[in-house]
Amino acid sequence: MNKPKRPSPNLKRNEGRHQDPVERTKNFEEVALGFNMEEALTEAARCLNCKNKPCELACPVNVKIPEFITSLYQEDIQSSVLKIYETSLFPAICGRVCPQEEYCEAACVLKDKFGSVSIGRLERFVADYARKNNMLKLPECDKDNGLKVACVGSGPASLAVAAELRKKGYDVTVFEALHEYGGVLRYGIPTFRLPREVIDFEVENLKKMGVKFIKNVLIGKSISLDEIRKDFDAVFIGSGAGLPSPLGVNGEDLIGVYSSNEFLTRINLMKGYKFPEYDTPVYVGKKVVVVGGGNTAMDSARCAKRLNPESVTVLYRRTKAEMPARAEEIENAIEEGIKFEFLTAPVELEGDEKGRLKRVKCIRMELGEPDSSGRRKPVPIKGSEFYIEADVIIAAIGQSPNPLIQQTSKIETNKWNCLVVNEKGQTSIEGVFAGGDVVRGGATVLLAMKDGKTAANAIDEYLKSKTSNKN
Ligand code: FAD
Ligand code: SF4
Predict the structure, then answer these.
(1) Is the pLDDT at 296 greater than 90, yes or no?
(2) Ligand nearest to the CA of 120
(3) Predicted pLDDT at 249
(4) Which CATH number belongs to the domain containing residue 291 in this structure?
(5) Is 113 a residue whose pLDDT tops 90?
(6) Which of 151-165, 276-290, 407-421 has the lowest mean pLDDT?
(7) Residue 141 placed within a domain
(8) Which domain-ending residue is among 397, 429, 446?
(9) Among the atoms of ligand 1, which is closest to the Cα of residue 451?
(10) In a 3-state reduction of DSSP, which class is residue 255?
(11) Quick one: 76 and 165 in the same domain?
């Protein structure tokens, strides 16, 4: 095909094709349609192949961005995908959900003048193309070394540990509390952002490599951490941050009040959006209010919208500029007709005589001095209270680690109940490592994978030193 000469930085940045905003609110199919080959090559032509690689340095796992884009431009997809896999384990996932605008694309030298190269979309294109055309061979695994490692949870942190250690010849078993694997990728992020075939592909590959998966096992209840530690040579805890924070206002026991965790799990894991085909009704009524400004709030609002209420309104106590959600998903939500009430917080939930939510008392906020997060603190404006009618309210204001393992073992935690680890991911218990949201208290998929990789290397080092001491 005819492709632009490289470099052609002044070509318009391609934001990718999307499903029509009205149509897509009637289905749960993927919204971002990605690139076709021609679009990918044209976007790849924009890259300057910078010698000092600012994009690569800004990526938490240092994906070899200029090199993979160069191979793509040369239409050598095989080399391109292998370049990505050198440092990133699940590019079809990261290409879709990673906040590139904060990492690689923020550092792209074209950003201010022409618009950054669409690095995330190119990563997704290469990974999808390779998957669909069977170009991905399973990685070679070293000979079994007879050492057993357990991973608690099957989110991206544990999947990264499992992949890395299996390659090194370890016998790895992943224990998952739920009946499906993938953690938040499966129960939190909706199908219209991350199709399930992408997660299934990665889990199936790990199974083919010999990783064992056991579902419906809650470590700390079905088996204690001490027991599992005795049965395995090392343990990795990647149990995430699945405990929702309540709104902390009167009326939270009313019918129609959900945590985002419950709401999204009903839809994504229990397939509530397919009721009555699947036996999980999800009540949204006519008017839905979502509280929060992160990815969880956007996902909750956009899932609710697809269940066809009259309106979905997001309350966020700061302004659009401070919203922690991915920029692309905020724009998608706006396009889909989600309403936003910025500088607004709920102060009370009021119900009817049957105990059902009827309206939300809100207050307007203004931004004051920066708080500990560095963002300007929202301060209530006296006398600015007003009401919004609502049948359902979804609280998406943050999550903290599930306390079960912490409560049933002597592992060290901090004041937010996150596990305390050193720079290698080692916890206070010998042979027990941790990473991802259970340590960071709610971060990103890529950081969870990065932690998993760090911990896998540390586990390898620990077990090698133990076995060599024995000899
Ligand atoms: P998780 O993904 O939370 O997985 C932990 C797993 O451990 C779960 O499957 C859980 O069931 C299991 N588990 C917990 N306790 C036990 C136990 N005792 N025994 C056995 N199993 C247990 N990040 C991005 O980068 N981009 C996004 O667009 C994005 N969107 C998000 C949307 C939502 C709705 C949410 C909630 C988060 C989002 N994030 C996003 C954040 C990201 O998903 C997390 O940072 C990441 O999944 C953390 O990975 P993890 O492996 O640490 O834990
Ligand atoms: Fe290409 Fe931008 Fe990276 Fe330079 S900074 S190599 S232009 S993606």
Answers:
(1) yes
(2) 2
(3) 97
(4) 3.50.50.60
(5) yes
(6) 276-290
(7) no
(8) 397
(9) 52
(10) strand
(11) no
